[in-house]
Design brief:
about 120 residues, mainly beta, seven-stranded mixed sheet, four-stranded antiparallel sheet, globular
Length: about 120
């Protein structure tokens, strides 16, 4: 049972980045996938979640309009795409399996480092 993420990314300010998260070892459609990021020296920041069953998403207000979650059930892969990258966006972006209110995020991907630099 694991979540495997794509490799580090380097983007210019204003560009977009798309990070993948491939799930294996469990039924992909049984759990939401959440996305959380952590900037250097900062705490965890929840970005939102997606239901792989129907693609229904919930975005943290801070990211609405700039982030898109998708999920491909045929490849058991979830994606986060962040557009209009800014100076505050460099962070490690992690996916996590959402096991509900009582259990929370109980399986994490290793994280993908996103660097924004001109």
């Amino acid at each position: 049972v694991q979540l495997v993420q794509s490799g580090a990314e380097l983007r210019n300010p204003g560009a977009s980045v798309k990070v993948s998260c491939k799930a294996s070892g469990y039924t992909f459609t049984s759990y939401y996938i959440d996305w959380v990021r952590q900037a250097p020296g900062q705490g965890l920041e929840w970005m939102g979640r997606i239901d792989p069953v129907d693609g229904h998403t919930k975005y943290a207000q801070k990211f609405q309009g700039r982030v898109t979650f998708t999920a491909d059930t045929s490849t058991t892969t979830a994606y986060v795409e962040l557009s209009s990258l800014r100076s505050e966006d460099p962070a490690k972006y992690c996916c996590a399996r959402d096991e509900g209110f009582s259990t929370g995020l109980n399986l994490w991907g290793p994280g993908t480092k996103v660097t924004v630099s001109s």
